[in-house]
Recover the amino acids of this structure.
């Protein structure tokens, strides 16, 4: 599975999809960020990765968060960098990029 994800990172904008997180506060909950990012990756590669983030994502344009991607049966872990691209009406949109090499 990790090979599939790595193959996707080589494509321009392949992992630059905007995600939407609904949040009543100024952050997007950690579990929501993890779930939505994993959902998008699963749609792209056909297998759901494990995404682990260290906390909530600030709902502010330019805010960043580095999460970790892992796959069942693979000991490698990859950084996933998230960046908030817009916030409108309490909805944060973010892009993400999976590192090409393991951490």
């Amino acid at each position: 599975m990790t090979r599939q994800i790595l193959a996707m990172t080589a494509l321009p904008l392949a992992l630059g999809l905007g995600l939407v997180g609904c949040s009543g506060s100024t952050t997007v909950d950690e579990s929501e960020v993890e779930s939505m990012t994993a959902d998008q990756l699963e749609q792209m590669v056909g297998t759901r990765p494990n995404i682990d983030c260290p906390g909530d994502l600030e709902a502010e344009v330019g805010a960043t968060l580095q999460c970790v991607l892992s796959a069942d049966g693979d000991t490698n872990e990859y950084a996933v960098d998230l960046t908030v691209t817009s916030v409108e009406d309490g909805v944060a949109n973010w892009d993400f990029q999976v590192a090409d090499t393991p951490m």
Notes: The beta strands are 19-22, 27-28, 50-52, 57-58, 64-70, 77-88, 91-98. The chain has two helices and seven strands. The longest strand covers residues 77-88. The helical segments are 2-9, 30-45.
